[in-house]
Amino acid sequence: MREYRVLCSLIILVLFAVNEVNADNPYRFFTWKVTYGDIYPLGVKQQGILINGQFPGPQIDAVTNDNLIINVYNYLKEPFLISWNGLQQRRNSWQDGVYGTTCAIPPMRNFTYTLQAKDQIGSYFYFPSTAFHKAAGAFGGIRIWSRPGIPVPFAPPAGDFTVLAGDWYKTNHYIMRQVLDSGKNIPSPDGLLINGRGWNGYTFNVDPAVLHYSNSWQKVSGPVPGGPTTEIAWSLQQARSIRWNLTASGPRPNPQGSYHYGLIKTSRTIVLANSAPVINGKQRFAVNSVSFVQADTPLKLADYFKIPGVFNLNNIPTNPTWGNAYLQTSVMGSNFREYIEIVFQNWENTVQSWHISGYSFFVVGMDGGQWTPASRSRYNLRDTVARCTTQGQWTSHEATLSFKILPFLSRVGDMILDDD
Fold this sequence. Notes:
25 strands, 2 domains, Immunoglobulin-like, single chain, oxidoreductase activity, mainly beta, disordered C terminus, 420 residues, disordered N terminus, globular, signal, copper ion binding, Cu-oxidase_fam
């Protein structure tokens, strides 16, 4: 354990030395104390995880290119790790806060995250990424505002709200973690929280108005339509219709999206198919028949210090094998500045949500059925939106999802792809 801590400290010092934090941009300093505390989100007393006594945690407000220095003190009884969902980590992956790239903060210790909201605007969030801590709290919103003098593609809003919505359980997160570790599924959630509140409500004061297209001559009539339920085709069409505004300004003179990604020739295609096998009598989840097993040593440390026997490089197939699933600490290699096309093939009867930590990518296609090279003819190679998370819809048979990844980093350990 002592050697592990020494390695963690050493790699943090080494990598911090080459961290390219821009001294010409403003710094924002935060001190967070992570503690246990009583919360009542669904009217039942629970042990929550608080940040500076708050549930949800404090909101981070910053401006494009600001440097964020966040000193986190862990007063829990177990290691704690925070991930910054949506913030890009360019040559800075050891700050991303996911297992494999960042050491967890031991109890009664602290760690300072050094981040930069480089060339970004928008709404993001942070959350604890290990030990099922997210089911107890320690999450909050991040808002990156546009730099002064750089316009945004909409009029100033009458109001601005951060909405954190998600499922919630009355059961303690320790117990739910034990259920998952035993190879069983957790039950359905007990309720929905919006900004940390359930049945006791969270309200937003707004004025009534109707959205009306400027080129429409028809008046509004009839009742408000209901939301989608199992209308998969409608949902896919909605996702495909989200486009990038090619006339809008951005946080910098050359905003992301202007790289003409549609003209790039990919050098490699990876097809990843998810599955839910039972391995050694326990319910597991796998990608291309491999169910990932966490190693005792973080993968970033093993990669940097060339520690053998920690993970298996390139043992996970790049296409589905449909063979028996097995447990392994598998890592898929890639090359520096390689442009990769990744296809997620969802064969389950639930929606799958995928996130690539520290990166953004272009969702160029989404459709039902088995993906084939002919599917590329339906790609949007002009104005798709760059994202860090996307969902794979499902039908009674199958659905497919395609990505084109524009990686900025060189090491395979720099990119962690996980099922949200």
